[in-house]
Amino acid sequence: MKAKYFNKSADEKLFFLALKEKVNDKLKDKTVSHGGARFWFKGLFWTLICYSSYSLLFLNIDKTIFWLLYVVFQLSGLLIGFSFGHDASHDTAFRNKKANSVLHFFSFLTVGIDPLLWGLRHIRSHHLYANVEGSDIDIDKNPFLRLSPTHPWKPKHKYQAYYAPFVYMFTLLHSVFMSDWVYLFSDEYNWMKRGVSKAELYFRFLLYKVFYFSLVLVLPLLYADLSWTFIVLTFLTASAFTSMVFIIMLVGTHFFDGADYPQPEGEFLEHTWAVHQLYTSCDWDANKGWARFLSGGSNCHAAHHLFPNICHTNYSEINEIIEETTKEYKQPYHHKTLFEMMFSHFKHLHKMGKPEFYN
User: In this protein, which residues make up the domain named Fatty acid desaturase (predicted)?
Assistant: First the structure.
């Protein structure tokens, strides 16, 4: 990881100080550092949907119903991760860190991505240095898509806006079978794993993968009254569908037309930490309750990056403050509908497919 330092602009610091004061004043009569009734209702709702649909897989049902139930199981499992797991990774579900760790582990069970490794890279890398190549792991070069002007251009990238959906269908499976193993065993990511013993990393990784594969494959193969080929095909197609939903909700929050991909001058980045988050993040339908319910507040990306210590069910009360304060202090605030964000993302892919956009 390339260590970076943020600018110490007095004007930008004044903006964030004013923003924090307004948010604290708005939420002063509430407990916001851990989940309340809305948080638990939403997470338990998706948990009930997930494991109810899963239990029905073992009844004597036909293939079409089995496939539909499996998709509901996978998709609602992903929404458990959004609703419970994301907050637990930031220690905003419970007051107790160990309780957050347990919830984080079980909230990711149907997703397949190791929760400990994901949490480490999410907090120690992405949340600190969003969109900074060499510091934000989420923007690392990949062999398929050119997502940043700092990535080298190749002729195939001219067509990436067209083949990207097929790549996105395999995002979760790639994480399960490839990325997790690289993050665990590669010395390149030792900075991310600092402070966590190898024994704990390996034990939790093994335990998680055993739980995951037992849940999504082994038990259905053993006890569902269908052929193993159909069950494996169901797993693969449901994972592809779930992966697309995951990408639709998240990929445009940082990879959109107009996003900043800052590179440091020496070791210093252009903006303060708070303003950096605004230049690199995009909200979608932040004022819509249905969007917050589905995405676990990930649609309120500016609020989450600026206030990661606040439980996401409080974002509805601070989005307007962020929008007003950014206007007042002439700072950026990107907000789109979900459709606009996805259109902007593919517009960005098209732009990155041109060789002239290369830093």
Answer: 66-336
